[in-house]
Each structure stands twice: as structure tokens, then as C-alpha cells.
Amino acid sequence: MNTLIARLRRFIKNEDGPTAVEYAVMVALIAVAIIVTVRALGTNLSTTFSNVSSALPSGTTS
């Protein structure tokens, strides 16, 4: 019984597991932020290029 309690205390004091989980959550949040930013920039750039394209003369002469 004492070995079980000793193992439980060691498990609770060990910080390797929670630290790895914290880093994984942080990496996931950063990845989501990057994806959202890239998608927003892509949409804005697409709209900007469409506006510029429609503002330019067509280039065909008759």
C-alpha cells in the first residue's frame, strides 16, 4: 500500500506530462491563429485584385 501511495505522490509531482500538454495546446492555438490570418488575408487580397482588375481597361481595341 505504501508503494502505491509513493507512486501516486511521484505521479502528482511529475510535471513533464502537463508541460507537454500545455505546449501542445499552445502550438494548436498558434496554428489556428495563423490559419485564420492567412485565410483573411487571402480573401482581402482576392477582393483587392478583383477590384483592380475591373478598374483597368480591358486592353481590347476594335
UniProtKB/TrEMBL annotation:
Keywords: Membrane, Transmembrane, Transmembrane helix. The chain crosses the membrane at residues 20-41. It comes from the Bacteria. Pfam families: Flp_Fap. The keyword Transmembrane applies. This is Flp family type IVb pilin.
